[in-house]
Amino acid sequence: MTPPDYDATLDLPPELAADLSYDTLAVHTGIGRGTGVGVGIPIQQMAAFQFDSLEAAAREFQTNTGSSYSRIQNPTVKALERRITALEAGSETVCLSSGQAASFTAFLSACRAGDHIVATSSLFGGSVAMLSNVLPLMGITASLVPNTPDAVKAAMQPNTKLIWAETIGNPAADVADLSALAEIAHAQGALLGVDNTWGGVGLLCRPLDFGADMVTHSLTKWAGGHGSVLGGSVTVGERHDLTRNAIYTDGEPSLLEVRGAGALAWRQRWFGASQLGMILPPQSAYAIAQGLETLSLRLTRECETALALAEFLEGHAGVGRVNYPGLEGSEFHALGQQYLSGGFGAVMSFEVAHPEEFLSRLKVIRMAPNLGDTRTLVVHPWTTTHGKMPEAARRAAGVTPQSIRMSVGVESLADLQADLKRALS
Ligand SMILES: *Cc1c(COP(=O)(O)O)cnc(C)c1O
């Protein structure tokens, strides 16, 4: 797809880009060509940008397509946005300060007071908290339901404006039936939003291809990839229908009339970045853009190691249930095959009889609440990431007192397997 404001100093020619693979787009998008042009995305660490005439200043303030002030648009962040748009095959991306900021921006772009969201209950804990505690303060309500199209359909209300799911749920590793959810949303003019963090910025899954209208990421995870930086993004596709959402149709002229096909992304940038100020610093954008250059190498390897470790854990007498869609016995294996390509993700959860003892015996694997790091990390969701939720909500998310969540890094399979074996003995 051609970005609406195609820029030859940032984008590859669209007819060329259409034929390039993920790995090539990941290292070449966002960089210009020419004598003296740097090979990489430069850090433009400044608050404001100059105008050479009053006319140029007035035009920029009307269109917001160039650079004026870094809360609205920064060139380093813009280069990262172009790279993410290419990798998700979208039409526009807005980068924000964290995954939480991205989810909040996505929710506010579809809903206002009086509207309703249907979400699957096995979401990232922070998303559950935002839907349950923050949005109701603004008059937006949410129903959290089991991750099946039937349950989602049954929860739809006349005022439902958004269905929200994760490509792979956290930590139950349940795969969402994206096409079915898109159909349910679109039947009543609602949007489908997908948190694709576990889908690795379009590497394992591109939800827009399956009918989603917007995709978010915690760029903190596989995109940054080294546990060193926080960030988030929202990417919109081209096909969304806003004609039944009063946010876009109210007023004369309406937002839809003024902004056309770009209205959804415009509102996301206007609210998330410009008005709420949840911006991504240029230093972080640089680190994330660099992380994306090796995402495919890292995540492909991590998926292979994760599958081998899931099979090892499944066969170990000291381990209870193992949740990983790559396992043939997983109830989500078929959906995983349908929606994921190149691997089933780098995260699994499994049950051990004595979590405290198990965790204390690990010597290589570290206990830390992150995902997508180069290092393998584990947490005990019951007492940490999901600890503030009511017990019923924790169980609905697939978390039990015995659950361990593990995000697999790039270490050698043999070393990781030996560490787990030692801790289980
Ligand atoms: C971590 C995470 C988030 C939140 O991202 P932050 O960058 O920590 O704000 C949202 N969704 C998923 C699936 C995550 O793993």
From TrEMBL:
Cofactors, names only: pyridoxal 5'-phosphate
Entry GO CC: cytoplasm
Residue stretches in coiled coil: none
Residues modified as N6-(pyridoxal phosphate)lysine: 221
Leader sequence residues: none
GO MF term (any one): O-acetylhomoserine aminocarboxypropyltransferase activity
InterPro entries from the UniProt entry: Cys/Met-Metab_PyrdxlP-dep_enz, OAc-hSer/O-AcSer_sulfhydrylase, PyrdxlP-dep_Trfase, PyrdxlP-dep_Trfase_major, PyrdxlP-dep_Trfase_small
Family of this protein: Belongs to the trans-sulfuration enzymes family.
Record's protein name: O-acetylhomoserine aminocarboxypropyltransferase/cysteine synthase
Alphabetized UniProt keyword annotations: Pyridoxal phosphate, Transferase
Alphabetical list of Pfam families matching this protein: Cys_Met_Meta_PP (PF01053)
Domain of life: Bacteria
One GO BP annotation of this record: L-homocysteine biosynthetic process
Species lineage: Bacteria, Thermotogati, Deinococcota, Deinococci, Deinococcales
